Amino acid sequence: MLDEKKLSFATDAYSAKHLEEKNKYLFLVKIKKRVKYVLKILNYLLLIAVGLFFVYPFVWMASMSLRPLIDALSFDPGLIVKHPQWQNYVYAWRQAQIVHYVGNSIKYSVLVLTLQYFTIIPAAYGFATMEFKGKKFLWATKYLGMMLPAEATLIPVYFFYSKMGLVDTWGGLILPSLFSMFGIYMFMGAFKQIPKEVIESAKMDKAKNRTIMLKIMIPMVAPVMITHLLVTFISNWNEYYWVLVMTNSESLRTLPVALRGLLQVEDGVPEWNIVMAGTMIQLAPIMLVYIFASKQVKMAMVGGSNKNKISK
Amino acid sequence: MADIELINVIKIYGISLKKKKKLNKDLLEGKKAVNNVSIKIPTGSFTILVGPSGCGKTTLLRMIAGLEEITSGTIKIGDIDVTNLEPGDRGLAMVFQNYALYPHMTVKENIEFGLLNARIPKFEIKERVSESLKIVGLEEYQDRKPANLSGGQRQRVALARAISKTPQCFLMDEPLSNLDAKLRSEMRTELIQLHQRLASTFVYVTHDQIEAMTMGDNIIVMNEGIIKQQGSPSEIHNNPNCVFVAKFIGDPGMNIIRIDEEYSIGFRPRDVEFVEENENEENAIFVETTILSFENHGSEFLYLVDFKGTTAFVKELSKNSRKVNTKINFIIKKENIYVFDSCDNRVYDQNEIEVAYDRFKACWKEI
Amino acid sequence: MTDLKLVGKKYNEFCDAIDELKLVIKKAKSQDEKERLKTRISELKTELNDYKKSLNSEEIEAYRDYQKIRLDIKRCERLKKMDKLEAKIFKKLNPAYIYMIPAAFGAIFFTILPAIFMIIGSLFKVDLVSIWDSSFKGFWNYEMIFTRDTEFVKAIVNTIIFAFFTVILLMVITVLMATWLSKNTKIHNLSQTMVFTPHIASMVSVSILWILMLDPKGIINQILSIFGIQGPNWLMNTSTSLFSVAFVTVWKSIGYYVLIIIAGLQAIPPYVYEAAKLDKANSFTVFRKITVPLLSETLVFVFIMKFINSFKSFAAIDLMTQGGPRGSSMVLGYWIYNAGRVKFNYGFAMAGAVVLTIIISVFTFVAYRFFNKKSEN
């Protein structure tokens, strides 16, 4: 019956073309292929060039850090150093007291990385699975807190800190990281991905809330944990603003803030080679991680930012 | 061992028992997932909750398990009111549709988890694990993770996990629907055997009426949150109390023909006799019609036939198929005819049946 | 074998007897009776010890096993009791509140209290030494920063220019680059990896790097001089300082946004493109009619976030220009820091913070309205 109703129009756009001039056509294809090949190579070269635009400055920084002061001040764009001055690093490490700040940076990162989970994970678990009065209000406040810039709340928080004696203490320094909305968001999203049945079956298995959280959920979101660890390590190692504003003495300041000190010399120009050596030391751990696990780092950083999409 | 009893249970999503103030108003207005259900599930039975998707059967099961809060009503297991007890404290075990194994634990750890939480001493846990694994035949797999098991094996682990708890009652939420057809029928027989062996109550949810008919000894048919009929498989099949049950049970379900405002009649596709021509038999209706299409079921053929404006299915046990658009004649005997009233409920009154039958017969004569 | 079972039976009998006596002791009234029962227990214990000594090595092993089991059962009973107690407590108290303590503390201490303090404090001339001596001044702080502080208004304007400039520049560059880089070859991946590098480097190191690059004698000007252009002192020139800093922040975050857009691009299912190919669409049509519409939600959202975030850029300004020269690169975030932490004028700083919050709220609100409308369509 359908045959009678066969659709027909004036032009026949989707039928295979008759290749009447087959040879000519094949020749054209050949030329096209060659042009394409050349374009491909050019494209690759361009890709590398653009990539270098983002990497070259860091390599140049490494070369600067090995120059003697006079060479450094010439800002020569070349990368090769004839007589590498390794003692720049020794100088930065000892005289500029980078060793002290590296210690502080490590301490700061380790403290945050280990302690944050004691607060973030229960909160994420609560938001993901539990019902309680004031949940929406708390959620809205946390959301607002993410919008409210640290620059705006700086003065009140600094005031509280100084009244409570938290300025220039490790406790004060790591405190806000323990309530990071970013982490709560990330783990909440991960917890919500866990199939409902698994949690229900744990409930049938007489599991208490903490058992579900510790023995079922955390092992199941282990990959997220690694991602989060990576992201928080990078962001804490690089943290600048918070450490700067919540410390007054040098005793607690971390490497990024210390580098700022190297820049601010009383008169004349900073010793650029030493500054560069210090900066290289600050960059080194993250760059090493990046070189060996670039894929993971990229995934972690980009995936982590999609946190906002989860809530949408 | 104890019966499970549900008394006037209502479930409306989004409304919990705790907010009592609004409750009365909501009870009238809300859409009820489970509507005033009262049933008794006898000890040791293999009870099947069956119905189309969205009929509230899974909700009902989850309410028994304690995973779903009930809006009003009472659930009792034996003499104990478990309405407000935690899921773990009800003495039940549940098997989920997608197994719900803990993916980071080995088979052994999966089973141990619930036992450890129940504070059972270690030596006993050991016994229980090995015993339950033996029952499902997975002793060699106890150190594997669920990811390294096949679907059927995972289902068995889930079963072993339930068995190890020696519960009063097993709750199963479509446990076989994720398996392929062959494995499913294998597991079906195994579950029946398991039920006999453990001699405890099984409450089994399925949307598949064949599964219900083959496995259960007590079937509860649900639709739109209401229990339509409860009874043994043969009762449900041979004696449906409403159009819904009649249509839902059987493959395919009963043919229902509306004859007038008052009555409709039904007959099963299998309950027809194929004849060459009208023999004017007593108490039977002769039907002469054409075949619209057919399905080949191997040893039998299912024909869709024109039935006075509507269509009906008839089944013939035969190896040779009839052709589409050819004539087909059959008779429907009076004893195979079911009568339903205008509210789709079954009519049992003999006189009324007589009336409906005569009208039905008259309809056919006219043509 | 029966021997060993006997050991267990005997051991359990002893223990049961001891436990029973212990229970009796608790109920006992007179001191005398207690003493008597205690001696009876110690007797039983020595008896048990004697019995243990009389066992042979095989039996000792069985004895130990029975002991272990008995202890295990006891431990489990103890735990069960604790569980019951816990269940009782949590029936009254929602356990969620315990889980929420840290989050609630964070919300109160870092969001609610500061916000309230900020709004109230902005109406006072804050006395640093004793806060209670602060005097209420109404909107005096606001009046002062808007009329007397030359840098404040400049900071507002700069902040908004800075945000628009970075977002527009970033959007144009990253969308183009992402469509170009989005391919899974080794070279493309390498290029992506390189472009991403600045994002994970600290703002401090990037700033220091670009202070050098943008130096009057730095690499940028060296390159310009090849083309015969005399480049300015980028960071020390009132007309270029803000844009130079903006450029550096853009340079740092290009890789990040490129990767996000690529992730968005690759989330578009390939069958869409295949269908387009079958429908004979050319690559420009595909980009215009398929890629952009399917990507627009990601794009709008990502760049709204970036826009709001660029109100908060502090480190780059602090390191590269410190708001100078003559306030040409002053932004609100830095102005607040300067007023509060450097000049210790808390009232001004908090008034500035309120203004910053209002500006961010307005832009966020508008952006969300815009975004929601978009996603509704």
Please explain how this structure is put together.
The complex is a heterotrimer of chains A (312), B (367) and C (377). Helix content of chain A is 72%, strand content 0%. Chain A has 16 helices and no strands. Chain A has helices at 22-65, 69-73, 87-94, 98-129, 135-147, 150-164, 170-174, 181-193, 196-204, 209-220, 222-238, 241-245, 255-263, 272-292, 294-305, 307-311. In chain A, helix 4 packs antiparallel against helix 11 (222-238), helix 11 (222-238) crosses helix 15 and helix 13 (255-263) runs antiparallel to helix 14. The longest helix of chain B has 18 residues, at 181-198. The mean pLDDT of chain B is 87. With 367 residues, chain B is an alpha+beta fold. Chain B contains ten helices and 18 strands. With 377 residues, chain C is mainly α. Chain C contains 15 helices and two strands. Chain C has helices at 2-27, 31-54, 57-92, 96-121, 140-147, 150-181, 186-200, 203-213, 219-226, 241-267, 270-278, 283-309, 315-320, 332-342, 346-376; strands at 124-125, 135-136. The longest helix of chain C is centred in the N-terminal third of the chain and has 36 residues, at 57-92. The interface between A and C is large, with 88 and 93 residues.
List the defining traits of the structure above.
heterotrimer; A: mainly alpha; MetI-like fold; 16 helices; about 0% strand; flat; B: about 375 residues; alpha+beta; Rossmann fold; OB fold (Dihydrolipoamide Acetyltransferase, E2P); six-stranded mixed sheet; globular
Strand content of chain B: 25-35%
What is the domain total for the residues of chain C? 3
Gyration radius of chain B, rounded: 25 Å
Alpha carbon gyration radius of chain C: 37 Å
Give the helix level of chain C as a range of percent.
Answer: over 70%
Number of strands of chain C: 2
Topology:
The complex is a heterotrimer of chains A (312), B (367) and C (377).
Chain A lengths: L21 H44 L3 H5 L13 H8 L3 H32 L5 H13 L2 H15 L5 H5 L6 H13 L2 H9 L4 H12 L1 H17 L2 H5 L9 H9 L8 H21 L1 H12 L1 H5 L1
Helix pairs in contact in A: 1-14, 3-14, 4-8, 4-11, 11-15, 13-14, 14-15
Chain B lengths: L3 E9 L7 H10 L2 E10 L4 E5 L6 H9 L6 E6 L2 E2 L10 E4 L11 H11 L4 H15 L14 H14 L4 E5 L7 H18 L2 E6 L2 H7 L2 E6 L2 E6 L1 H6 L4 H6 L6 E4 L5 E4 L5 E2 L9 E13 L3 E8 L2 E8 L9 E7 L4 E3 L9 H17 L1
Parallel strand pairs in B: 3-8, 3-9, 6-7, 7-8
Antiparallel strand pairs in B: 1-2, 1-4, 4-5, 9-10, 11-12, 12-18, 13-17, 14-15, 14-17, 15-16
Helix pairs in contact in B: 3-4, 3-5, 4-5
Chain C lengths: L1 H26 L3 H24 L2 H36 L3 H26 L2 E2 L9 E2 L3 H8 L2 H32 L4 H15 L2 H11 L5 H8 L14 H27 L2 H9 L4 H27 L5 H6 L11 H11 L3 H31 L1
Antiparallel strand pairs in C: 1-2
Helix pairs in contact in C: 1-2, 1-3, 5-15, 6-10, 6-12, 7-10, 10-12, 12-15, 14-15
